């Protein structure tokens, strides 16, 4: 019992020391907000309606990482989801998304972010620093069966630290310019976005890496909450998926750069297995747009 009491006291002291360290910030940080760039969305845009588009095949999973995750829905789950910041489409300067301000360390390897307290998951839960700390566990876990993310979030992103509920620091491996740091952390394709810790709780974690052992199978067709304006509403396997707008109370509309954007109520993506047939659907008004990527379409069939 005496040894247990000593261990408990030591653990408490270590916890206090860690807490004090975790809550400290460099005193000379220069916080950047950049909330006065020109707006780029039209105030005349109207809300409502359904945007109809297509995909060639139905995805084999609704996960955004792991086997078969690089599907036609990846943009909706990951690439198009809010990051900490994004480039202004006209000025090229960084503007707030999930972070309302950011600051750089003197060693040009660490970026500090103050999170937007308004940000919520589509299920109503708050987005906090804990979701970013969990994100690191998530991507480093072998249970997601995705070596690229295991490597990137171990060797390029070396740590994510919770300063307080709405402040984090992101440490990178290589010293680089401030703009390069922001690009590395906010690239649409690298997956640096919070993960809803509350959604993934439960299940066995025998190797202690923070993720359930049967992650790939258990979450294959489960849609996790999103920070974006659209959540997955309906799934008709083999036929279509429908995303629905979170609503007028979506947290993003408190950000001036998000106002007057994401105006359709629903996005319906139907399976059409042939581009020529999809073009016919577009010509008949059954699809709202058609990407003419290949020359045979934009040159040969666009008259």
What does this structure look like?
This protein has eight helices and ten strands. By secondary structure, the protein is of the alpha+beta class. The strands form three sheets. The protein has a four-stranded mixed β-sheet, with no helix packed on it. It is globular. The N and C termini lie far apart (86 Å). The N terminus is likely disordered.
Termini separation comes to 86 Å
Helical content (DSSP H or I, runs of 4+): 10-25%
Number of strands: 10
Indicate the radius of gyration in whole angstroms: 22 Å
Report the principal-axis shape.
Answer: globular
Supply the helix-strand structural class: alpha+beta
Average of pLDDT: 90
The order of strands across the largest sheet is 1-10-9-8
User: What amount of the residues lies in strands?
Assistant: 15-25%
Largest sheet: 4 strands, mixed
Q: Give me the number of helical elements.
A: 8
Task: List low-pLDDT spans.
Answer: 1-21
The helix/strand series, from N terminus to C terminus, equals HEHEEEEHHEEHHEEEHH
């Amino acid at each position: 019992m005496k040894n247990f009491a000593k261990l408990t006291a030591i653990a408490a002291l270590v916890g206090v020391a860690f807490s004090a360290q975790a809550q400290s910030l460099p005193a000379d940080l220069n916080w950047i907000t950049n909330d006065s760039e020109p707006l780029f969305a039209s105030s005349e845009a109207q809300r409502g309606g359904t945007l109809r588009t297509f995909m060639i095949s139905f995805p084999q999973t609704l996960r955004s990482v792991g086997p078969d995750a690089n599907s036609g829905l990846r943009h909706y789950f990951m690439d198009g989801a809010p990051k900490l910041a994004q480039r202004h489409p006209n000025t090229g300067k960084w503007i707030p998304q999930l972070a309302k301000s950011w600051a750089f360390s003197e060693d040009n390897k660490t970026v500090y972010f103050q999170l937007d307290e308004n940000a919520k998951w589509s299920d109503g839960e708050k987005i906090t620093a804990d979701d970013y700390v969990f994100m690191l566990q998530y991507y480093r876990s072998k249970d997601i069966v995705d070596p690229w993310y295991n490597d990137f979030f171990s060797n390029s992103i070396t740590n994510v630290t919770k300063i307080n509920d709405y402040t984090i620091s992101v440490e990178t491996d290589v010293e680089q310019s401030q703009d390069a740091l922001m690009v590395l952390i906010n690239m649409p394709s690298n997956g640096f976005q919070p993960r809803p810790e509350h959604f993934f709780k439960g299940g066995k974690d025998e190797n202690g890496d923070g993720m359930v052992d049967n992650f790939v199978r258990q979450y294959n067709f489960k849609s996790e909450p999103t920070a974006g304006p659209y959540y997955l509403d309906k799934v008709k396997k083999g036929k279509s998926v429908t995303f629905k707008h979170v609503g007028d109370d979506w947290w993003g509309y408190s950000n001036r750069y998000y106002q007057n954007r994401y105006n359709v109520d629903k996005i319906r993506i139907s399976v059409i297995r042939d581009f020529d047939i999809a073009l016919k659907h577009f010509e008949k008004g059954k699809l709202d747009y058609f990407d003419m990527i290949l020359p045979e379409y934009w040159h040969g069939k666009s008259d």
